[in-house]
Design a protein that fits this description.
It is a single chain. The chain is an alpha/beta fold. 35% of the residues lie in helices and 17% in strands. The chain has 23 helices and 20 strands. The strands form 4 sheets. The protein has a 6-stranded parallel beta sheet with strand order 3-2-4-5-7-6, with helices on both faces. The protein has a 6-stranded parallel beta sheet with strand order 11-10-9-12-13-14, with helices on both faces. Helix 11 packs parallel to helix 14 and helix 16 packs across helix 23. The longest helix is centred in the N-terminal third of the chain and has 15 residues. It starts with a strand and ends in a 28-residue tail after the last strand. The model has no long low-confidence stretch (mean pLDDT 95).
Amino acid sequence: MQITGAELFVKALQEEKVDTLFAYPGGQVIDLFDALYDVQGMEIIMPRHEQGLVHAADGYARSTGKVGVCLVTSGPGATNLVTGIATANYDSVPLVCFTGQVPTPLIGKDAFQEVDIVKITKSICKYAVTVRKREELAAIIKKAFYIAKTGKPGVVVVDLPKDIQRAYGSDEYPTKADIREATSDTIIPSEQIKKALEVLHNSQKPVFLIGGGVHISNASKEMKQLAEVMGVPVVTTIMGKGAIPTSHELYIGNLGIHGSYAANIAISNCDVLFSIGTRFNDRITGNIEEFAPNATVIHIDIDSAAISRNIAAHVPVVADAKMAISELLKGATPLHLDEWRDQIEQWKRKYPIRMKEEGVTPQKIIESINTIFDDVIVTTDVGQNQLWTTQFLEITEHKKLITSGGLGTMGFGLPSAIGAKVGNPKRTVIAISGDGGMQMNIQELATAIVYELPIIICILNNGYLGNVRQWQEMFFAKRYSGTCMRYRKSCDKNCNMLGEKCPEYTPDFIRLAENYGAKAVRVTKEEEIEAAFAFAKKNQKAPIVIEFIIDREANVMPIVPPENALKDMIMERKKRK
């Protein structure tokens, strides 16, 4: 049977069991939208901006384990996806992004809304391709879904010229992708696993370092079992947090520039660092020359290019995390580490992460979430709000964290919460954002309203781009350049002081949220925190915005100064003179 390319596109999505499509119309995808008009069993979500759209698809994918699917038009529609593509790909999130394109005879002729999106995105995605022939359409779409979710997941971009959408051809859709099978996720290097176990069994001060790869491979259950069998303490990256419950006795804390004292010191003193599913980026290592200086490094990762790229591995293991951990369990036996674990526990008790300020603090806000919500997905934006959340949020089997790790994308929090709620309509979804990041995709409040998504949106408002301001305070002599969100043209350009003369904040988040149709409440006192969450928990009909007015100069502590070793943490902030 002969059908159009647009009709085949719809059939392909149905064959891939796509139940949600995040899409924004335009001239070069109007045929695709027409073909989608009568489709059954697939919800079309139209966010208010393409960047919000791709972040929503990202949140949907991270929260469900399914492939997120996007559809946008050519030119600016396609380029507006770029930040979201990089965000998802950096964190190994499976997305397939379809972009419209001008007809093939016009490609390369500066046609209206023509861009070479394949060339633009090829360095920030797993695979990108323009469909040049109608007879190749089905095979390319099948290949796109296979690549996105197989091996190390990532983003695939499929560019669809308008004439390909209109051209007639076969209605057949393949059952299998025509691609050479990957092997790194199916073959276990048994000799390397055996060697890793030997090193571990001979250690006195071992530490497991767990990254996002453990979550991606759905290996949290196996990881918890391995840690418990061997009795080895666990530290995590931000992306790996929750690989074992944060309340577990073997869990030390997050590692890195804003890591806990115990986690950073444990890494600095361990004799075996057993890393699974992390890239060892600079946010967790500090000064590379002084990172885990006494340790034999074992590194398991599905991506061979990630091993020894930043930290040299003495025992490299290229494998899927879940399969590798399962193999490790076969030879795992208890280690006698009472003295080492006691030392770590002393560090944890002596230097806990806590905020000493009075009033409304991020710690009190997030700990209220821990207390009030039993089954919740929490998304964050990027900045201090993200770091406080990763420090204080309790993560268990029923409490999930979604955040932009590798790229650190402001504007991610709200739209990713929308995607998570679409994919998990019966679960509570909370977005935590700063006042700066909130304004980057605030238009997506409309999306939450029109699709009747009762998400809870927490704005931690300190009137600054807080993370940059903190660095300016601590390392740039309090020269607050470009970070005050209350700044007006009439202000002193070089002001770095807080005072009664500061202008009112723009916008008024409460009035703005209410104008969108959301519920809204402002919290200025500690005793109002739990009441605001209790009110939000009862609401099931519309999004709720809770604006928390926090200390304008609240800092994320501890912090490792630039170019310093993890052990050289600043534990407390010096008071303003």
